[in-house]
Amino acid sequence: MTNAAPRNGTSPEVEVPAVASPRRFHTAVHVRWSDMDVFQHVNHARMVTLLEEARIPWLFEDDRPTVALRNGCVLADLHVKYRGQLRHEDTPLDIAMWIEQLRAVDFTVAYEVRAAGAAPDSPAAVTATTQLAAFDIETQRLRRLSLPERDYLAHWLDG
């Protein structure tokens, strides 16, 4: 565990060994009262934001080889599946992330979201994927991932 101060509602990152063989990055993200819908469940739009907040310490912090993506990365695709309820009292959420697919200009992040205290091998309440593409702001075109970016992302590749 690192001693970095929490940012954007996340706690410092913690690598937790997954039950299965894939390597996963785990972070804790706190649910805010404003994240709830009228039924006291985490709202869909807020869940998408919580997934984004979970990616920040993994991909966009200054010490990451992927930090350049902070200045040029576009969301190309998003899928969220709800398999269970998440409520305010389930905070902090444990969000596990890994790379599902890695290509020349883009990569797909997979997520499993569990309530605080849930067993790592328990069914995830939310599963999701986001396809992110490297983008050159100056040329307004997609760009190839650099070798350090690819190497870092490949470390988290499932399979």
Automatic annotation (TrEMBL):
The record's listing under Pfam families reads: 4HBT_2 (PF13279)
Q: Which Gene3D superfamilies match?
A: Hotdog Thioesterase
A single GO molecular function term of this UniProt record: fatty acyl-CoA hydrolase activity
Q: Where are the transmembrane segments?
A: none
The family database entries (CDD domains) matched by this protein are listed as: 4HBT
* Listed name of the protein: Acyl-CoA thioesterase
Q: What is the lineage of its organism?
A: Bacteria, Bacillati, Actinomycetota, Actinomycetes, Mycobacteriales
